[in-house]
Amino acid sequence: MKAFAMLGIGKVGFIEKEKPVAGPYDAIVRPLAVSPCTSDIHTVYEGAMGDRHNMILGHEAVGEVVEVGSEVSDFKPGDRVVVPAITPDWRSEAAVRGYPQHSNGLLAGWKFSNFKDGVFGEFFHVNDADMNLAHLPEDIAPETAVMLCDMMTTGFHGAELANIELGATVVCIGIGAVGLMAVAGARLKGAGRIIAVGSRPVSVEAAKFYGANDIVNYKDGDIVDQIMDLTDGKGVDNVIIAGGNSDILVSAVKMTKPGGTVSNVNYFGSGDLIGIPRLEWGCGMAHVDIRGGLCPGGRHRMENLIDLIRYDRVDPSKLITHKFHGMDKLEEALELMKNKPKDLIKPVVIID
């Protein structure tokens, strides 16, 4: 089959690979719509996961089932499905403990283009199909649904990790697609005032649509100073980090009140250490929690997110700024994620 792959650090291209084979609990899926992610950029151009050769990229896909294993009961060939970026091994100790994202190893629930080939091929493999696939309703377009696979579940997880109380003041640092979904998630969780940190006009407008009350532009000065000014020196209850380099945690802690929570769903793709400011963290005793987590995946999570769309709680289609048709457009879409032009939030490739 034809597939779009990482050839080595800094190199991508189309290759031919054997079609994957389904085990008894698995499925083989043909993609209908896919989307490249900033994580793919970290993987290819920073070597964040190490030097990989001929590894198929991609972890965001909606597709059609073409084959199922003998033990799969809830899906059949022809079914349209949402495929989460995180596909845990549900028969694992970590899943029993409530952390399926780390089933059989740290971050090991994230399999696509990490531990195995991803979704940017004519076909791709899904483990534990009954637990990891979700039926896609006819009234949701594949290009909209592909925003569920990673962007929506990750952004919402940022809001979940932040422990937002009703009426809380929340900052979302970074308003790419994940940060925008963090804004939407904070609103759904009951935040009062939401401050979004970003600069691109297209993202600023989307942040306001999803619920941001104030916009802080990091190009206008230190974001801590700006947020402290906005809050009359009080700081904020919760910070969700959805962008930035390894120093961003310093800023997040500095702006958080004692008793608050810093939530991180940002992918730190380089560096060995992430700093915490000693004094502003109360020499370790500020009662400021710092939490970070890989987004939840699996069937139940996707079904819940589908209902948020079906019942008009959130519209992730606003994230899509660029649409392409045909697998041959994958490299062009990936280049957009690498270069991040001002009019980009998220590209989608529809596989005709």
Core attributes:
single chain, alpha/beta, Quinone Oxidoreductase, Chain A, domain 1, Rossmann fold, six-stranded parallel β-sheet, 11 helices
Could you explain the architecture of this structure?
This protein has 352 residues and is of the alpha/beta class. It is 27% helix and 24% strand. It has two domains: 181 residues, Quinone Oxidoreductase, Chain A, domain 1 (Alpha-Beta Complex); 139 residues, NAD(P)-binding Rossmann-like Domain (Rossmann fold), CATH 3.40.50. The strands form three sheets. Strands 3, 5, 6, 7, 8, 15 and 16 form a seven-stranded mixed beta sheet that branches. Helix 6 links the parallel strand 9 and strand 10. It is globular, with a radius of gyration of 20 Å.
Structural class: alpha/beta
Low-confidence stretches: none
CATH architecture of the largest domain: Alpha-Beta Complex
The number of helical elements comes to: 11
| Annotated CATH topology of the largest domain | Quinone Oxidoreductase, Chain A, domain 1
Distance between the termini: 16 Å
Instruction: State which percent range the strand residues make up.
Output: 15-25%
Beta strands, count: 16
CATH superfamily of the largest domain: Medium-chain alcohol dehydrogenases, catalytic domain
Rough shape? globular
User: What is the radius of gyration?
Assistant: 20 Å
Helix content: 25-40%
Mean pLDDT: 96
Series of H and E elements: EEEHEEEHEHEHHEHEHEHEHEEHEHE
Biggest sheet statistics: 7 strands, mixed
- Taken together, the total number of domains comes to 2
Query: For the record, what CATH class of the largest domain applies?
Result: Alpha Beta
